[in-house]
Fold this protein.
Amino acid sequence: MSTWLITGCSTGLGRALAQVVLERGHHAVITARDAAHVQDLADAYPATALALPLDVADPEQVTGTVKRAEERFGSVDVLVNNAGYGYRAAVEEGREADVQQLFATNFFGAVDMIKAVLPGMRARQSGVIVSISSIGARISPPGSGYYSATKAALEALSASLRKEVAPLGITAMVVEPGGFRTDFAGRSLQQSPDTIADYAETAGKRRKENDATHGTQPGDPAKAAQVIIEAVETPEPPFMLLLGDDAVDGFRSVEQDLRSELDAWERTSRSTAFPA
């Protein structure tokens, strides 16, 4: 039995993951900005679940949540950084305050969670840190530049973290889902109120009023939760776990395009050194 601390459990993947973790008999600290949204899960598993309010953009709540988790269950064995939301705008349309809040939640909130659990994990020489990213970090669709940037930053940080903590018995991994049937493209999706006509055919097509994908995404959150748990519990968890056909296909397409460009420009790229 291990203790999982999962952020952003009110809906979608976070809630599905919390449900499966509890069904499997593990302890789970399930969080949401409004803990009332997850209290039903805690009530269903009173011996193994703890529901707490948590806004990951509030550093005091972050440290307080980890402290209460450790007091209740003794440790945090698995951290899942799931809290976050989407934001759509052409780069030129993004409002500074909106973008700062997006990074405060999607990136810096996850960083604070990581830093809060690491002392305990280092002391025990064990632990797993899972950060939920997005295939958007790879394919960078128009209109999602800022959101993709938060996830790309989280992935880069996680890659360095994995190398830093591996000798200490700790694993860091990233999950890149494609489209899953959650509230991500509905209630959880924000966008800039500013629009520029020149972007109507690029970023504009992905504004909420023009995007009909909500409710039709191919991914099943319950199946994703099962796969994440299996990956965490395997002896050698992967660094990058892709979820969904669209994620795998998107990743391969970008990888192939980059490789082709690398090959085309390799000679030029190598020409920048001082003469031997």
